[in-house]
Amino acid sequence: MYARASAKQNHPQPDTSSLLEESVTALLRRLHDRTLTARELTEVHIARIEKVNPQLNALVADRFAEARKEADQADILYDSADHTDLPPLLGIPCSIKEFLALQGMPQTGGVLHRKDYVASQDSTVVARIRAAGAIPLGVTNVPEGGLWMETHNLIWGRTSNPWNLSRTCGGSSGGEGALVGSGAAPFGIGSDIGGSIRIPAAFCGTVGHKPSAGLVPNTGHFPAAKDPHGYMVIGPLCRYVEDVLPILRVLAGPDGKDPVCQPMPLLSPRQVPIPSLRVFSWPGGGSIQVRPVMREAVDRSAAALRSEGAKEGTLSGRDLDSGFILWASALQAANPDGYESVVAGDKGLSVLRELLLYPFGRSNFVLPTLVTMLSESILRRLPIGFDALLSRLDRLRAELDAQLGTTGVIIHPPYSRPAPRHKLALLTPFDAACTALFNVLGYAVTVVPVGFDDEGMPVAVQVISRRGNDHLTLAAAAVLERHFGGFRCAMREPRTT
Questions:
Q1: Which single residue of 71, 199, 370, 410 has CA 20 to 30 Å from 148?
Q2: Is-catalytic flag, 115?
Q3: Catalytic residue among 23, 173, 196, 329
């Protein structure tokens, strides 16, 4: 305690506003040179959560008392140890998606049959984050059972966008997006099976990274990943691109429990010469009505990369516009029990009965869950040749792999538009194809903010590359961040119109 107190006396009080906008990398430098203590950093973010969370409903359970103790322990290490031996994320506060087990915290998945469930031990990635010295502040809100882009459930309620409370924050890592976007956490850990990291990152103006399939173990996640291909992945949401790799290095690698996770090299994006990249613009299309602001973001981003020497490529593929059906078919084939088994547990249910009860406020499920279960039930009964669809997916992957090679990246919208108003995503459920296709392809994807629309909502793009090429997406995203300014904290009072 004496060492921490004496260190605090030797530097001025931190600028709170700057701490809410600085990168993890910059914060670590301040902790190492002792111009900032871990306790100060933790207190600033706890205060920010206490200010914004009543409006956002992003953090659903906190561990502030434990976090303060862990921050004090981090300061003792900083003041007494050889800094070359310190854990890589020592003293950095973070948040954890409620789907991931954090010992002593709820892990309900937003479904009523698990409303009293508390994690008895950490998931693999949480254990790794904590061993690296990061300090979890609590767990964040999720949609009911996942698989939806609106973060709402009957246990924790609805989460709002920090840029406009009338808009969705996305899902399923929506609480993470809202918390990081509002400056209340330097980074968070989310998961993604169809866009669940990327859509919240895009809607809330943060960086989000969907790692390559099989790079990070899913052990301790609810719902459990049941496919053998790595469609679901765990990854970070953070303020700046430079923070992704240090976090990813902590998360990545086999744990001996997840059979899909395997050793995979994690190369540095700093070693990627931008003139070596080939950039393929894909503004979207087919049945998805992509708004002009999103198409323009793709065009501006590709032009920015070309201005630094990247070469232009032309993308082709017979099934480029069949992303949603290929994704849905792959998930159905991998998990025939489907979404209903997650949200209903072992009891089973009648979807039609629940739909009839919903208008009277008597259903045990929110509307998007019922619509998703009904769609899944219809899909199972249709005479669809899943084998043929999976063959089409394999063919598309082979076509894109060949075009991208070892240096290609795709620029693509993360959604058809910036964050819509609450509930309106129900009108365009297939627009999730913008992200979902890349889960079943197993590709690496980084979302990076590139500006704002006329209503002040964040606009972002996806940077996509082949499995194992995470360093390419991060290198290209860093260029876009530099060109367009990157992260801006939603510091002003969130709007409600």
A1: 410
A2: no
A3: 196
Q: What is the DSSP string of 99-113?
A: TB--TTSB--TT-GG
The encoded tokens of residue 81 equal: 């140890």
**Contacts of 73 by beta carbon, 8 Å cutoff, 6+ apart:** none
Burial class (CB in 10 A: 0-12, 13-18, 19+), 117: middle
| Active-site pick, 95, 123, 160, 172 | 172
Pair type for strands 187-192 and 93-97? parallel
Per DSSP, 406 falls in state T
| Whole-angstrom distance, CA of residue 167 vs CA of residue 420 | 6
Query: Bridge partners of 207?
Result: 238
What tens digit of pLDDT does each residue of 183-228 get? 999 999 999 999 999 999 999 999 999 999 999 999 999 999 888 9
Bond prior to 265 in cis (omega within 30° of 0): no
Chain segment 391-416, per-residue pLDDT in tens: 999 999 999 999 999 999 999 999 99
Largest Cα span, the chain? 72
Is 172 assigned a catalytic role?
yes
Is 210 noted as a catalytic residue in this protein?
no
Angle between helices 174-181 and 38-56 (to 10 degrees): 120
- Report the C-alpha gap between 472 and 474 in whole angstroms: 5
What are the start-end ranges of the E strands in 269-354?
A: 278-281, 311-313
Domains in the chain with CATH codes? 2-255+265-277+444-484 (3.90.1300.10), 336-381 (no CATH)
Using a pLDDT cut of 90, give the percent of the chain over it: 83
Angle in degrees, 0-180, between the axes of helices 244-251 and 470-484, rounded to the nearest 10: 150
pLDDT tens column, 304-318: 999 999 999 999 988
HSE value, Cβ hemisphere, 13 Å, CA-based, for 215: 33
Q: How far apart are CA 283 and CA 230, in angstroms?
A: 26
Q: Kindly name the residue from 23, 95, 97, 465 that is annotated as catalytic.
A: 97
CB 420 within 8 A of CB 453: no
Instruction: Report which secondary-structure segment, H or E, holds 481.
Output: helix 470-484
